[in-house]
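Entry for the shared binder. Reason: the reviewer on the internal report wants the predicted structure included alongside the sequence.
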Amino acid sequence: HLAEVVHFGDQQVFAGATTYTCLLFLSKEAQPAFRFVKAHDLPAWRQGEEQVEGELRADVASSSEWNFSVGRDTWLFDRLADATSRLGDVASIFVGLQTSADKAYVLEQLDEPHDGLVSVRDTDGTSWLIEQGTLRPFLYHSTVATYEQPVSSHWLVFPYDVTTGKAVLMPQKQLTSLYPRTWSFLISKGKVLRAREGGKADNDQWYGYLYRKNLTLFDAPKLIVQVISMFGRYAYDDKSLYFTGGGNGPYYGVRWSGSDNPHSLHYLQALLSSKLLDLCLRRVSSPFRGGYWSYG
């Protein structure tokens, strides 16, 4: 029943609102094919000028995601889309941490660590001296570059023990005994932490993250992906940087899925940075205004 789709890409149809728009035309009767128009030059389209378009078979509009290809390089994209090897088959792609309260857990570094303590400042402007044992180097509001080591100027409060591949929340007794400065800091943020998601965190583990997935994935070497970018940014990190992420930002992590993979992570980095694979990504990704794309 699909008759026509007019896709506007990152063109902004409505003044004063950032939205991403398409026109979807349906027919009362089933159609063998439909028309797909890439109206990525909005002023020209409004003037009735010719746009890149094509007719596609109805069966390509299935229940899976729609990635329609018309115009230049369509043959190349169709050929690559049939490739048997996919990134998800050979690589582990993981989302960043989700604390549900980044403003409480993320601290700005004021001075270099000394004697196991770090001088930091919270988002309220209060300075603290906190034990380094409960902190992890954290990537915050930084734009990564493919062939540069990311630099961290922040720390993440990480009240977890990571042993035998599992992250276990430190009990209060352990924190007060070994990390009293950290515990004092967490107590100061108690009201905010307990109130997360309508009080969902108001229990005896109130000082831990609300969503505890991927806590053990950050220490090994990885590629850090900048999610919203004009082009692919895949920074190699071997400094155990932590980051948050999910949906469209700010970062994702990628590494080979098997520990026995013989290839270097720099090889994967080079592949992802190639013009060919960047072209592929733009064919299946979401455009954002200003020439940005989602690399999520």
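Summary line for the report: Residues 267 and 273 are 10 Å apart (CA to CA).
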